[in-house]
Amino acid sequence: SVVYLNGEYLRLGEARISVLDRGFIFGDGVYDVVPAYGRKPFRMGEHLARLQRSLKAIRIETGWSAGDWEDLVQGLLARSVLQDCTVYLHVTRGAAPREHSFPTQPVQPTIFGMVSSLSRPAAVNRERGLTAVSMDDERWLHCEIKSISLLGNVLAKQYATDAGADEVVQFRDGHLSEGSSCNLWVVKYGILRAPVRDRMILEGIRYAYLMELAAAAGIPFEARPISRLEVGQADELLLTSATREILPIIRLDGRPVGAGSPGPVYARLRADYDRAIAAL
Ligand code: PLP
After folding, report:
1. Where does the signal sequence lie (predicted)?
2. Host domain of residue 17
3. pLDDT (tens digit, 9 = 90+) per residue, 199-237?
C-alpha cells in the first residue's frame, strides 16, 4: 500500500526514518485517525482541527494549513484501493541528537501518513455487545493530547485482553474517564451522560457528534463527573471511536450492565450513525 513520508508518496516497504527520530526515541509526537467509507472521509475537518490542536499543545510547527492536511488525506485516499479505511496521520518533532529538551537547531518535523483497511463493527458486536473490565486510570495528566506515547493505553488494552474482555472502563479518583482507545457514555432513565471534556480524556470526534445525534433524536445529554456507583447502576454503557463507531458494553466485570443487552438509546444512536455513513 502507498504511504506518505516527508513530501513523498512511497510504497510502505520503501518508507524509512532515522533511528534518532524523536518519535522513536521519546514518543515525541502526535497523531490522528480519520475514518473513510467508500474512500469518503467522515468528519475530516474535525479530525484535522484536533490534529492541529495536538501539534500546538506540544509546540510542533509544521507550517501546514488545514488545506495542506486535507490535500494529504485526499492524496492518500486517491492512491488507495481500499474502500472502507482509516487515514492515519503522524507527526513527530523530527530527528536530532538524543537530548530530552527540544532541539536547539531547527529540525524538520517528520510527517507520515498511511491508509489501513477498516472493518466496520461485526454484527455480533453491534447486536450482542461487548464485555469490559474496570481498572484505575494510570495514564498521565494530559490525555486531551492525541500523543503517540501510548504505553498507558497499550497496557490498559492488554489488561482487557488478559481478562478475556473487549475493553477497559477506566476510573480516575473514582470517576469514569475513558476506555483504552475510546470514549465512554452511560445512560440512566433515558439521559445520556459522558465525562466532562477536560485533560483526563481525549475528546473523541464522536463526542460532539453524539451530542448532535442525541439532540436531533430528543435524547437529553449531560456532561459531568460520573462515579463508579453510577456506572455500576447504569441502564446502558456505550463506547465510541473512529473505528468502532458506537457499540454497547453489556457486561462489566462479569456482571450485566442494565438488562445485559443493548438498550434503546444505543439502538437509536446506532441507527442514526449508520444512516450518516450511508448518506456520505
Ligand atoms: N479516547 C482515546 C484514548 C482514543 O485513543 C480515542 C481514539 O480512537 C478516543 C477516545 C475516541 O476518539 P475518536 O472518536 O476521535 O476516534
Report:
1. none
2. 2-117
3. 999 999 999 999 999 999 999 999 999 999 999 999 999
Provide the 3-class DSSP secondary structure of residue 74.
helix
Give the Cα separation of 153 and 155 in Å (integer). Answer: 5
Lookup result for grid cell 516527508 = 6
Q: Report percent pLDDT > 90 for the chain.
A: 100
* First-residue to last-residue Cα distance in the chain: 24
Binding site membership of 92 for ligand 1 (Cβ less than 6 Å): no
For ligand 1, atom 10, which residue shows the shortest CA distance? 182
Phi/psi of residue 48, nearest 5 degrees: -70, -35
C-alpha cell at position 243: 473505528
Task: Characterize 214-235 residue by residue with b for buried, 16 or more Cβ atoms within 10 angstroms of its Cβ, and e for exposed.
Answer: beeeebeeeeeebeeeebeebb
| CB of 35 shorter than 6 A to ligand 1 | no
Please tell me whether residues 89 and 135 are part of one structural domain.
no
Measured distance CA(163)–CA(183) in Å, rounded: 20
Q: From CA 200, how far away is CA 154, in angstroms rounded?
A: 17
Q: What is the ipTM of this complex?
A: 0.99
- Pick the last residue of a domain from 117, 134, 158: 117
Q: What is the CATH number of the domain that holds 113?
A: 3.30.470.10
Judge contact between 181 and 241, C-beta under 8 A.
yes
- Residue 201 C-alpha to ligand 1 middle, in angstroms? 9
For the CA of 209, the closest atom of ligand 1 is 14
pLDDT digits (tens, 9 = 90+) for 44-102: 999 999 999 999 999 999 999 999 999 999 999 999 999 999 999 999 999 999 999 99
Cβ neighbours of residue 123 closer than 8 Å, sequence gap 6 or more: none
Whether the predicted model's global pTM rises above the 0.80 cut: yes
Judgement on whether residues 113 and 137 belong to the same structural domain of the protein: no
Distance between alpha carbon 37 and the CA centroid of its chain, in Å? 17
